[in-house]
Structure formats: structure tokens, C-alpha cells
Amino acid sequence: MSAPAVQCLFLTRQPLPEERDFKRVLVIGGDAAARALTSRLAGQGFQVLLVGDTEDGIHGPSILSLPGAILEDVQGFVGAFDVTLKTAGRTVVERVGFVVAAQPADVVLKFSDHGVSPSERVVSLSEMEASLGSGWLASLRREEWLHVAFLFGLTGESDPYAFSRVLSALEAFRQFDRVQCYVFARQLKVAADGLERRYRACRERGALFFRFDGEGPEIETEAGGPSLVFVDPLLGQEMELDADLLVVDEHVSPPASLGPLLKTIPSAPAFAPYLQPESHRFSGVETARPGILAVGASRGVFLPELIDADIEAAAVYLQKFPASTCSNHSWGPPEIDQAKCTICLTCVRLCPHAAISFRKKAEVDPLTCVRCGICAAECPMKAISLAPPDTANSGLEDLVKNGLDESTAPERIVAFLCSRSAALALDAAGPAAAAGIIPVVVPCAGAIDLSHILAAFRHGAGGVVAAGCFTGNCASIYGTILAGQRAEQAGEILEASGIDPARVVFAQVAANTPGVLIRAFGGLRSRLRDRA
Amino acid sequence: MRSCDPGPPIVGDRAEYILRDDMQTHVLIVGGGVAGLCAATELAGLGLESVIVEKAPFLGGHVARFCCKATDRCNRCAACHLEDLLQDVRSSDRITTLERAEVVAADSSEGRCRLSIAQRPHRIVPGLCDGCRECVRVCPEPGAIVDSPVAGRLELNQSVCRFFTDGSCRACEEVCPQKAVALGEPDRTFVLDASAIVLATGFKPFDASEKPRFGHGLVPGVVTALELEGLLRDENWTPPPTNGGTEPSVAFIQCVGSRDVKAGRNYCSRVCCGYALRLARLLKHRFPGLRPTMFYMDIQTFDRDFQRRLSLAEKEVALVRSIPAEIRKGVDGRPEAIYHGPQETRVVESFDLVVLSIGISPVMPDLPLPALAANEDGFVGTNGEAVVTNLPGVFVAGTLQAPRSIAETISHSIRAAGEAASYIRNISKG
Question: Residue A85 falls within a domain, yes or no?
């Protein structure tokens, strides 16, 4: 992953909202999960707009259901999103406080992966589930025993949800007389509630499981029914099975209908096609854009019982949002000097959280902004500043200068530390490791600017350590990557000026890896001592 | 955080003061690991107060002993999420924590529960203790004075210490130059009213000695994955030296205490494939010459990017679909694994280190409450992923309900907090 190049994305041109409504929610859905979420939120006193349902939808005093409507666009900010919906040939714009993506997963059929075509005797898992109740099964029976073969996860890793569906099918077949089931698999995915127990029960009742490490079965569908030729993985013997029915598993992928939401989030290329970055920094159903939530398949969760937890997490988020967000930041929101802003849109393009809008000049939405400081570090006009919590210091450079002025340590090492990782690691490292270090805590490593590093040297620093999260663990997605690039640039500038470039060190740190920080400090200390 | 961990010097009874000031809270949370801490921060976000009662002298549970599994990038083990949670808990004025404490009595009526909580004092008082380790030197009982996961602190383990087992020894107290050891300090008891209870008491790691054929404690060089986590927290740790000049080899044995009906574990522990592959890759990252092997039944999908993660792992880890029948001490002293290779061939292979991927075992919380219903596997609660129990107003969060990863525990705890909050709203409506 790297920081995004210029990409085509929707730029919010709206003014900052004057009023916000935290009681109106757009739920994008399509199945029972979205309907359950809608009822849950309506019961909590929210007004819910439910779009995209494949059925008639649900109705209630505070529910407006627009089955078949499609989300085309989202503008604005949390508490005041303007969502464009296309429904029955007409386009409507609605204002909502939050958007929850709760679409079901897209189903990817796997027939072609196995080189077979669907037919009466070669069906997908969904088709089989849909027709189990009908008399269709009896019509397939050619001899006394009916042989049903399942293909599971042979052409790509599957998941426990798919395995639970195969087990449900095996359990359902037990009701029928004289049915023999075979499962051809690579890895059985039993990592969910009760699956191991059910798998064993199916096996004890006669279902046969073949697990392949190398080649799976060869499948012929020419003459009459499907036949499978394979080497039994345990016995090493070649075997052939003439099946009456071949059930081909399906894979699920995040819904393609997330597109309009993804294009409004500049950091999305790092986690698309999902809506949630894959990091514990985004707990529950949070996404990189405050006010937009990912439930179920949109964040990679397929098991129905886990989707229930997502529904509750969405309800919790919506209830706590107004209070929690307004009080959570110790750093001030970025201030944009309108006289310096040339509307180059660097900040708009780079804000991972889509917090910046522009009309005549750029503006930051204080409720969306998570105070990472990437905009301030990246603004080519130096028009943006992020005020530190300590009001005595007007900016990062002040923190650096005052720190150096007060320090009596011989090495004069300035350490820019991400508040989420490196600052905690420094605490854990203990006072001995921190001795003589001038710590400058930044909200995110993305706030570390080239000019801050150079300013440290200008004010007499012996060396600089810039420490951010490990790539993939940055709460602002690419803040730590940007910080690494700045440190590298600073090194190049030092080298061009005849100064040892190793006096700038970039380190990837986690809150629980103080050793990395200790090593970085130790290496720099000895380098500076050698030089002296 | 309104800590009831007063810190030295002990000036008055700050904990008692805090709780006497307001004897009521919304939610009592039993267990201060990831699940309990997460439930507390979510409840605080919803405007509800909670008191966390933690048996151990520190917060964090098992995760406090896990290592970071990042290589050249984060591998999403989420162990460091604990630090985020601790920071949130410390900065919240709606959360009170009681370490070294247990619920000793509960009396529930009309939607409120009156609880008696006993808190042990610090036996080695932080702040007074300057870390000279004289106590460790004189202590006759191994494991009685141990290093705390909180850097620089020492803890006294009362279940081993001779003063608490038979009263025969006060050597540490007598030797301590700082007078930081307080063996005779009595417990304190608090009474607390709560409207709901969230149980977050966690799991028990499978006891590898239940499976002697894997040689844990019998064969040198066999460790559990949990022990390896602890070893890897020390970034200067190196694998045991190898015989014959080759690069060290490490075997991971999956499903130790999982998917094993004979051991009473008819379930998959869900987390072991994920942590074993992450640990194997971390070892490979730290020691590029090291040769990891993983013995498995079926590799479980543990995140949405699993396909890519597995193909990365396949380049670095030899994957063998077979669980060794036995780990024994070889003639060169190294552990050797005996397993079925392809087509039922018998293979004997030596390793420098064998890591047992022990599973998650259930523990019924030891609480003065009416009996809690358990499911077939022995976990609290009856249904799938739900957070309710057979007792009204008592909710569950995390691994006491089912095996789950840190990320899954977070989701489950958010749900527990949400449902506990709805419950409290409903009872207060009448």
C-alpha cells in the first residue's frame, strides 16, 4: 500500500452544515439484516430511510422504505449528509445524519472455476437450498441410492459461513431415504459456533469428506450426469464417482453497490472493495469517514450471528456519536488561513476521512475531522495549522524549539511520536530509554512535516526520530507512510548539505513494542557519540 | 478513570472514599481484560457508569502477555488494541477500576443488585518499591514474587507465597529496605449497587499437560504458543541453538486442546491458525534463516484477506496436514515429532523448538450468583453469539461465551454494552 496518487473522487463542494440532525439515518440494505437494523434503530427513536430492499420493505411511523432505490451519491458531513437516491426513474435528494451500509454480500458463482456448466444436475449451493423443499430431488433419483457431491473451497479459500451452509444441506438430506453425500474440499472451515460438532455428526451419520492437498477431483459432465475422478487422499487409490447431483459452492464478496460510498473517501483505495479499513483502529462498524458505517458484508462479516453484533454496534455508535465526538479531541481542529489557501485541493484529496470541503476556500468539518494533521503537514502553502493541546505552544515547531531550549542532554535527540503508538511505547520503555530524548507527541505520524524535521536541526537537534504506527495500523490509513516519506526526504536534504543522513531515523512502532523505540534511540545515540 | 488503585504512599482510603461518595453504578463488569475494558468504554460512551472488578493486580488479562506480531507491517493481531482501551479507560470519568478484587456476595432484587466486593491491598506497594529485587533474592518459594506486566513492578502471588499458604515466612518483608512489602495488610470490602452485570471473565488456555504425548513439561524445547508470546515480547530473545550448524527449525502443532472429542473439546478454538501463522511469520522475520513448519488438520480462515495471507505464509512456512502422534526427546536431546506423512508413511523429524498451539478452554466464572447456564461445550450462555444469559440483567462479553479473537471480542463486547444499556433503560422506565 502506498499513499494515493491523484485519483478521481467526488469532491464535496458544500458549505459546512449550520444545523445537523443526528436522528435521521439512511440504511442501505437488501435483506433481513437491513430490515432488522431498521427496526432496531426505529425502536431507539431514530427516523430511518431504508433503501435497496429486495422485498416490499418494512413500514412504521418512523420508517420510510424505498424498495429498489439505489444510492448514487453522498455529499456533506456527519449530521448533514445529502444523499442522492435514484428510484423509479426519479432522482431525490434526502438529508440524513448517518449512512449505514448493510447490503448483503455479492454471490460469486464458481461453475467456470471447475470447468462445468450449470444444469439440472449441476447446481449452485443457493439453487440447491432454494429447491430442497420441493419434489425436485426425487426426480433426480436414477437408482436406489441418490449420490450427491459437494465441492467446497477447492478453487480458493472458503469461510465458515459457506461451510455452515454445506452442513445445513447435509443435515437436510438426512430426512430423505437412501441419500449418500460426499464433500470434496481442501480445508474444512469449522471456526464458528457449533460447526465442528455438526461436522462430526454429519460424518458419523455417513457423509464422506475427502480433503485434498494437491489436485482435487476431475469433473466430467458429458454423459448424463456429473462424474468425479480423483485419487483418494488417504488411500492413494484412484476412484470414480457418478453423482446424481453436483453442488458447487459459491464465494461471497463485498457488495459492488458500495461504489458510490467508496468514491467519497480519499483513503478508500487502501481498503476497497470493503468499506471498513482492516484494522482494530476501526472497532465495531466504524469506517474511515465518521458518520458512515459498515455492517456485515461491507466490512467482511458474513455469518448471520456476527451480523447481529454489527447491528447492535451500529445502534451503539449512533446513540453515542454526538456526545463522544465533540469531547474526544485534545488537539484543536485545523485552522485554514484563508489568505494563504490557493484552493490547490491537496488537503481535500489527501484527507483520509473526507473531512475537508471547499467552496471559495478549503474548510474543515470539525465533527468529521479526527485531528490527524495530514492536511497541515501536506499543505504546500503552509496555510493549515493544528493547535497542540498545550495552549502555550502555538504549533509543532514551538514544541520542538521549547523542548530543545529546555533540554540539557548531550545528544539532543528530538523524537516525533505518534500519540497512538510511539508515545505509549515510550511510556512502556521506561525512564532509562527516554533519558535525554526530547519527545514531541503528534496526534498521528502523518502530522510530521518535512519542515518540522528540518526545524529541529535548525534549532540545534543532534538527531531526529520520527516514529509512527506499523503500516496497516495507522488510524489515518497512510499517515505513517507519509511520515516515512518525509523522514526519507529530510535525510536526502541533509545529505545534500553534507550532513550525515542517518541523523534522521524513521521507526514503525506499536504501543506494545517499546524495544523498537529503544533500539532506534540507542542506534542514533551511538552514531552521534561516534561522530563527536 | 477513577482508579481505586491508590498508588503509594497510601493516603487514606481513596477507593473507599470514591465508592462511599456514590454507592451506585449502572453496570458491574467482572473481568478487566479486553472484553471488560471494551464494554466499559462503550457504556461510558452511552453515558453509563461502570465499575470493573479485576482479580489480577493489573488490567489487560491474557492480552497483556501477548506480543506484537508485526513484521515489516502490521499483521492485524490487534494485541496493541489493549493499550488503546487502557488509555480510553484511564481518561474516562465514568469508569472505576478495582484491581486485585473479587465479588464475594451478591443480592439481587427489583432490578438492582447489591454486591460485596473484597479488594486485596498491594502486597508490594508500587512507588515505595524501587525495584532493588532484594525480596526476589531472599524468597524461598519460586514463583511467589514475579515481574508484573506493568513495566518495573513486582507482584506477590498469594497462592504460592509461604506467608499466605502456611504463615511460615516473612523474609521479603523483613529484607525490603523501602518497607514496600505489606503482607499483613487486611482486605477491604466495598458494597456496591448495580443495575446490570457484564461478565467478562475470559477463558483458560488449554492445559498442555492434559496431552502428555506432545511432551510439554517432559521434553526440553516444547513450549506452548502462549509461552512463545511471552518469549517474543523480549525482543532480544533468540531460538535455542541448533545441533549440526543448520538454521534452527520450529514446529507448530495445531489443535492442541481443540477439535478433540477425547479431550472434551468438540469445537474449534478459532484463533490458533491465525496466531500460529502470525507467530511463524514473526519468527521468520526476526530470524530469516529459521525454518518454520506447521502441522494442521484444516487451516481456518481468520480474516477477510485470508487468501493473500495464506499464500504469503506458504512461502515462509512448510504446511503439513498431519498432527504428530508423539513429541519425544531425540538422541541429540532435541524434540522430535513422529507423524504420518503422505500415504500413511511414518516420519520422524527433529526440531529445535516445538510450539503447541493450545486452544481456548471455557471457565465458569466463580461468582456468588445463581447457576449460569452453559452450552454443550461448557461456555457460558446458550445461543450462538448472543450476549444474554439465563439470569436477567446478567450479560456476557468475550471468550467466556465462545472462543473468539481480539477483534471478535471487541464486536461481542460492544454488543454486550449495547444490550445492557437497553436493559437498564427499560427497567428504569418501569
Answer: yes
